[in-house]
């Protein structure tokens, strides 16, 4: 006991302000995080109060002295929640701008600016193309980085939402005086605090004295049921101990005096807040895919750059010229349009999901939901309606299921008439003028049920309350005495645990009469109790007693402290089974999720029997033998044992779990390689929501903390919306593959002309500015509009993707070995035709570049013997580049049509994507603007083309379309032994 208490003291030292251990900031934060992940280990709720006072140096009457309190406050710091090490917004912005694929774009921008500087110092008239391209790449990076920054900046404010839950002042005893305005931040361990109804608990307290004291622990447990707290013996698990009231819990009834045993970061709330603030979310599957693509493309660009460098130096090019060549080839390999396309596609999907009651805060989480393999779902409010209802009634040895029973059947049942009076009177729930009921969830459910067949307001007016014994955890019953205004006599009503009420009953209402409570009737009632308990219901028993008017006349002084009235020999009326009913649509939603290969587990703080019953009802469990693990069992498990348990048992329900245990479950699933989605609505769910691959909060019942922490918010609190999210996530992944394939295909005809320009010394077929126009202009709308493609028919029949990368080898083969080469051939065909029509036949162009680009040479002869000046040559070069550009645009239009599907025929799918149709038209219009509008064509180094040159690429577009339809036909029918499937199905 002493070792555990001293251990707590050393932990407190670690959370002192001013870096108490002299550790580096990062090491200190890591040490604190490891401590917070562990369950609370303390004996302060178990030792006798006298020993606790001695340990804390306090007195239950006079409290701490002001000097001692000041000393402790200076040493341990204030009773507030300390945020984890926060980076300033500038550092956060810099981090957002330099992560993922943006690093590659920054590299491209730097190389472009470097190339421009080299040309500026080595040429009298340097080209500004690289300068423009560098500036555009920087702009692209900044815009996309701002999206990431805004998301990260919002998530850095998690601790502020926790601090909003803390009260400002409290009633504290010091030096024997009570100060009702003591700042909560000034409380220290050992302070004596007074709590009354409506107060928020200002720290973790050990209860000294109380009366009718109930607290709402939903901020910590997620279960919105008022629980009693009193000076009783504690349990080993402090979270379930009835003699402790926790920081941020709300006192809903009664009053209590307590001694502060924990403050600030080491309270139960502080531990949750510390975990939520310090945990780092795992990278999303899409983020990992983008990083992998970045590495591959970087390696490819660097490898190609080294090849060009060695080839250029071998061909005799000067070093500075070789440097420019290498920079050009590296920049040409960067698909500048990829990052804005991915961002725009995810943004469009997020906007679409808002119409389906799903608010996406983190764009990448939408795609991650499609890759989800495991869902750890909360019970209350997610799978259930979060509204307690009466489900069963047991009256006169008959069980009635309320949903299937007409209340008219009970009209002549005397026990039911007495039950209505008892249920309306023995309750502290209030009824507002508008008819709404406020109070404990169970009492609200009973009153709402009574409203269906009677008016409890009328009953309460007829029977005003005279005296009451509030419910407490020791007696496990509630008693109230009322005066019958019509008959001028008193009636006593009791509600409580069935076994307690039954023991105090001498008779039982049976067959419209009263039967003696004997062993046989006891057995009947116990069987009814067991049957209800097996369905996960919370069971309450009701009893009444008409008091003798001679012994207890009107005006009699009833004493609830020194009880002067009978609470034995009552008449047992019946049982009520209460349950938070599952949502109607949840079962079918879980069936769809499981059909999609996604595992669903329930993680709740509720009772194991209730959790099992709800799991069976909604389909998470298909047999009563479903494996149920309680928090106590989980506490005794090693991480390896939990891992093996998850491997062995597919259907698992976790009950009575703490916030740290929910986090432990998530991390164990991730250790298995699962992509984990976690649903939650309470403060206690924040660490698991933060750590999960996809954190999903509830929009209606969710706390501000859970909403702040989550990636996705369900605006209708409906589990079925998650199914829609999974379908949309899988669809967006498929469509992103199509968009990336579309973008990468145009990368091939952009790279090879640069290679030919360097290796074969031909005039440059495609300029830097036209490459920029393709990547960030003509290609953008069609690429983004592919996000609007409908989902494939089998999208929810597939297992979750595990080894299906965003950019696969099959896609690379299709892009670089098939379709990209056809586009390149179309562009070079247009280039050579335009050159030939002006006298430069293909064989003469090889090796001409040095004279072609020399301003001093004015007599370059073509194949017909005509001499061309530098200005004339450059004008022809612009025309050739414009023809090459238009050829790519025409083939990319066909490519956009091809990329609509991965294996279905276009004739089967049709052209129903209006966004794509408009995008293809826009592509032609933009190409016309770039070629024909004065000023713009000068900026992009293009030229007004003759009409016939627009049709030079048509044979190649027809070839692309026919080839791809043949490829998809072979894939669908597995021709040639499935060779095309392995080679090109991406």
TrEMBL record:
Signal peptide positions (record): none
Name assigned to this protein: Na(+)/K(+)-exchanging ATPase
Spans through the membrane: 97-118, 130-150, 297-320, 751-774, 811-834, 882-903, 915-935, 947-966
Function of the molecule: This is the catalytic component of the active enzyme, which catalyzes the hydrolysis of ATP coupled with the exchange of sodium and potassium ions across the plasma membrane. This action creates the electrochemical gradient of sodium and potassium ions, providing the energy for active transport of various nutrients.
Enzyme class: translocase
Entry-linked NCBIfam families: ATPase_P-type
Subunit structure: The sodium/potassium-transporting ATPase is composed of a catalytic alpha subunit, an auxiliary non-catalytic beta subunit and an additional regulatory subunit.
Subcellular location: Cell membrane
GO molecular function: ATP binding; ATP hydrolysis activity; P-type sodium:potassium-exchanging transporter activity
InterPro entries, alphabetized: ATPase_P-typ_cation-transptr_C, ATPase_P-typ_cation-transptr_N, ATPase_P-typ_cyto_dom_N, ATPase_P-typ_P_site, ATPase_P-typ_TM_dom_sf, ATPase_P-typ_transduc_dom_A_sf, ATPase_P-type_domA, Cation_transp_ATPase_P-type
Residues annotated as domain Cation-transporting P-type ATPase N-terminal: 43-117
GO cellular component assignments: plasma membrane
EC number: 7.2.2.13
GO biological process: intracellular potassium ion homeostasis; intracellular sodium ion homeostasis; potassium ion import across plasma membrane; proton transmembrane transport; sodium ion export across plasma membrane
Keyword line: ATP-binding, Cell membrane, Ion transport, Membrane, Nucleotide-binding, Potassium, Potassium transport, Sodium, Sodium transport, Sodium/potassium transport, Translocase, Transmembrane, Transmembrane helix, Transport
Membrane topology, as annotated: Multi-pass membrane protein
């Amino acid at each position: 006991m002493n070792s555990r208490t001293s251990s707590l003291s050393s932990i407190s030292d670690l959370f002192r302000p001013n870096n108490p251990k002299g550790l580096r900031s990062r090491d200190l934060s890591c040490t604190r995080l490891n401590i917070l992940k562990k369950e609370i280990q303390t004996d302060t709720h178990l030792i006798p109060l006298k020993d606790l006072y001695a340990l804390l140096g306090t007195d239950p009457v006079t409290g701490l002295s002001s000097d001692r309190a000041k000393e402790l406050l200076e040493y341990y710091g204030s009773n507030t929640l300390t945020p984890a090490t926060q980076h300033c917004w500038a550092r956060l912005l810099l981090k957002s701008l330099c992560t993922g694929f943006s690093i590659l774009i920054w590299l491209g921008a730097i190389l472009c600016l470097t190339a421009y500087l080299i040309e500026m110092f080595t040429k009298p008239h340097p080209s500004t193309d690289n300068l423009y391209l560098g500036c555009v790449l920087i702009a692209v990076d900044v815009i996309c980085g701002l999206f990431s920054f805004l998301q990260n900046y919002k998530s850095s404010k998690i601790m502020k939402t926790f601090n909003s839950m803390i009260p400002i002042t409290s009633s504290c005893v010091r030096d024997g005086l009570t100060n009702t305005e003591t700042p909560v931040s000034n409380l220290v361990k050992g302070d004596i605090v007074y709590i009354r109804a409506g107060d928020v608990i200002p720290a973790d307290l050990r209860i000294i004295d109380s009366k009718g004291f109930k607290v709402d622990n939903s901020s910590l447990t997620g279960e919105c049921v008022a629980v009693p707290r009193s000076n009783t013996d504690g349990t080993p698990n402090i979270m379930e101990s009835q003699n402790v009231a926790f920081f941020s819990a709300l006192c809903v009834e009664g009053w209590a005096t307590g001694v502060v045993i924990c403050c600030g970061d080491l309270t139960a709330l502080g531990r949750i807040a510390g975990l939520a603030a310090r945990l780092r979310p795992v990278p999303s599957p899409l983020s990992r895919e983008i990083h992998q693509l970045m590495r591959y493309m970087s390696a490819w660009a660097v490898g190609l750059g080294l090849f060009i460098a060695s080839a250029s130096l071998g061909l005799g090019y000067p070093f500075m010229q070789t440097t420019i060549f290498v920079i050009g080839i590296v920049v040409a390999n960067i698909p500048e349009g990829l990052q804005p396309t991915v961002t725009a596609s995810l943004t469009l999907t997020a906007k679409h999901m808002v119409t389906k009651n799903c608010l996406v805060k983190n764009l990448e989480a939408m795609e991650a939901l499609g890759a989800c393999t495991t869902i750890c779902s909360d019970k209350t409010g997610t799978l259930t309606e979060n509204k307690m209802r009466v489900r069963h009634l047991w009256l006169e040895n008959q069980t009635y299921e309320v949903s299937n029973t007409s209340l008219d059947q009970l009209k002549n049942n005397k026990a039911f008439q007495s039950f209505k009076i008892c249920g309306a009177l023995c309750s502290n729930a209030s009824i507002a003028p508008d008819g709404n009921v406020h109070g404990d969830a169970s009492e609200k459910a009973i009153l709402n049920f009574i409203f269906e067949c009677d008016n409890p307001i009328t009953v309460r007016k007829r029977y005003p309350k005279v005296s009451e014994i509030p419910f407490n955890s020791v007696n496990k019953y509630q008693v109230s005495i009322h005066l019958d205004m019509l008959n001028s006599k008193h009636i006593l009503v009791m509600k409580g645990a069935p076994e307690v009420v039954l023991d105090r009953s001498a008779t039982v209402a049976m067959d419209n009469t009263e039967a003696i409570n004997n062993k046989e009737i006891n057995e009947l009632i116990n069987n009814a109790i067991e049957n209800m308990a097996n369905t996960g219901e919370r069971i309450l028993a009701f009893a009444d007693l008409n008091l003798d008017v001679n012994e207890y006349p009107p005006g009699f002084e009833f004493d609830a402290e020194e009880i002067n009235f009978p609470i034995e020999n009552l008449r047992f009326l019946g049982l009520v089974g209460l349950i938070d009913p599952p949502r109607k649509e949840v079962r079918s939603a879980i069936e769809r999720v499981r059909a999609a290969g996604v595992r669903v587990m329930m993680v709740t703080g509720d009772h194991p029997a209730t959790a099992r019953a709800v799991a069976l009802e909604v389909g998470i469990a298909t047999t009563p033998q479903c494996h149920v693990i309680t928090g106590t069992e989980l506490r005794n498990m090693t991480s390896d044992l939990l891992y093996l348990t998850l491997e062995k048992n597919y259907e698992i329900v976790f009950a009575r779990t703490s916030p740290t245990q929910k986090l432990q479950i998530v991390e164990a699933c991730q250790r298995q390689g699962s992509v984990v989605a976690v649903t939650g609505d309470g403060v206690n769910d924040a660490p698991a929501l933060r750590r999960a691959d996809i954190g999903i909060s509830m929009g209606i019942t969710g706390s501000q903390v859970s909403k702040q922490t989550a990636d996705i918010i369900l605006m209708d609190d409906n589990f079925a919306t998650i199914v829609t999210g999974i379908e949309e996530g899988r669809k967006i992944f498929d469509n992103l593959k199509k968009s990336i394939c579309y973008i990468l295909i145009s990368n091939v005809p952009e790279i090879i002309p640069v290679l030919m320009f360097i290796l074969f010394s031909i005039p440059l077929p495609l300029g830097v500015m036209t490459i920029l126009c393709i990547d960030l202009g003509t290609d953008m709308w069609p690429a983004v509009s592919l996000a609007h493609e409908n989902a494939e028919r089998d999208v929810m029949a597939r297992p979750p993707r595990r080894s299906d990368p965003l950019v696969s080898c099959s896609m690379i083969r299709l892009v670089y070995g098939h379709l990209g080469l056809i586009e390149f051939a179309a562009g070079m065909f247009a280039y050579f035709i335009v050159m030939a029509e002006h006298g430069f036949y293909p064989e003469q162009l090889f090796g001409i570049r040095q004279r072609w680009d020399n301003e001093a040479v004015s007599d370059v002869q073509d194949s017909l013997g005509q001499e061309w000046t530098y200005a004339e040559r450059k004008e022809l070069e612009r025309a050739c580049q414009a023809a090459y550009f238009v050829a790519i645009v025409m083939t990319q239009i066909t490519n956009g049509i091809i990329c609509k599907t991965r294996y279905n025929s276009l004739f089967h799918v049709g052209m129903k994507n209006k966004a794509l149709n408009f995008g293809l038209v826009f592509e032609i219009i933009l190409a016309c603007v770039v070629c024909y509008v004065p000023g713009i064509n000068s900026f992009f180094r293009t030229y007004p083309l003759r009409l016939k040159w627009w049709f030079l690429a048509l044979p190649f577009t027809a070839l692309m379309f026919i080839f791809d339809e043949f490829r998809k036909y072979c894939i669908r029918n597995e021709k040639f032994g499935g060779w095309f499937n392995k080679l090109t199905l991406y």
